[in-house]
Design a protein that fits this description.
Strand content: 15-25%
Structural class: alpha/beta
Number of domains: 1
Number of strands: 12
Strand order of the largest sheet: 1-2-4-3-7-8-9-12-11-10
Number of helices: 6
Largest sheet: 10 strands, mixed
């Protein structure tokens, strides 16, 4: 994996298709590739697989930390960067701004988690980072995925809800979305993995006045994808290091016309489950291979 080092932020080179397609004719990726993106006062580290040659497009994964957590801390927990070389994707590690309590946060929805009322446009900033990445690195537009926990999961779904969003997939652990489904302006379905512990007392599995529950989030994206109503059981897997075999119940939407939806319910898990390496390995395989 190409290391992260300080680098000057250069203006985007070459045109990009505003609809999220391949860069325009005559475009060439930057070489050597950048190691940071965004403005100097809020630069986001970019990791690329060792095999990246500036010619063959690679998928893009964003890691979005929860409230009080930086992207690097979530990556330490999930181990996303451990998959960069083997799975062959670019990894972007952006951070939210810092609130009056000293906590990194994302202004994802009207309930989470801009408690100071700053109205910072995190969705616009992240969309700009993705656009800059595509202007400077050979990115496969068919694989642009956001991975988030808690507030970061809210932000991942908020980004997917932007009209014309380039996201093709979301992995959310213990996150949720807008209370009002009409606030989601998504113009297309995506691949969704909603993962949630059923004894989460921070963002409850059943939902609360901050966000809808895990089943409701899955149902909304299932409807958007034209899937059959409800979710069908699809076995169980072991994703939590809790001494219980196969504690995660998997269910999925059937007969979708666009995108896909799965709900992974972690039985007995709270807001911060001790996840195994298999969780992110299987999640990325699911979201990047579709």
């Amino acid at each position: 994996m190409r290391g992260v080092a300080l680098a000057a932020v250069v203006a985007g080179c070459g045109p990009t298709d505003p609809d999220g397609g391949t860069p325009g004719e005559g475009w060439e990726p930057e070489w050597p590739p950048p190691t940071e993106l965004g403005p100097a006062d809020r630069a986001a580290p970019l990791l690329l697989p060792d095999a990246y040659d500036g010619t063959s497009p690679v998928p893009l994964v964003l890691v979005l930390g929860g409230y009080w957590n930086l992207a690097e801390e979530l990556d330490d927990w999930f181990g996303v960067s451990d998959r960069v070389d083997e799975d062959g994707f670019a990894l972007l590690l952006p951070d939210g701004t810092i609130d009056s309590e000293g906590a990194p946060f994302w202004n994802a929805t009207d309930t989470c988690c801009d408690y100071d009322g700053t109205d910072v446009d995190d969705a616009g900033w992240l969309l700009g980072l993705i656009e800059e990445t595509r202007a400077r690195v050979a990115i496969d537009p068919a694989g642009v995925v956001a991975v988030g926990h808690s507030n970061g999961g809210f932000m991942a779904f908020a980004l997917a809800c932007e009209e014309g969003s380039p996201l093709t997939g979301v992995f959310s652990l213990a996150g949720s979305s807008w209370m009002d489904p009409d606030d989601c302006a998504a113009s297309h379905a995506i691949d969704v993995l909603q993962v949630h512990g059923d004894v989460d007392d921070v963002m409850p599995y059943e939902g609360d006045d901050v966000g809808p529950g895990a089943l409701e989030v899955a149902a909304r994206w299932s409807e958007r994808g034209g899937c059959d109503p409800g979710l069908a059981p699809n076995g169980s897997r072991e994703y939590v290091d809790d001494g219980v075999d196969d504690e995660t119940e998997v269910s999925r939407a059937l007969d979708c016309t666009d995108g896909s939806v799965e709900l992974w319910t972690m039985t007995g898990a709270d807001h911060y489950p001790d996840v195994t390496a298999g969780l992110i390995e299987d999640a990325l395989a699911r979201l990047l291979d579709d």
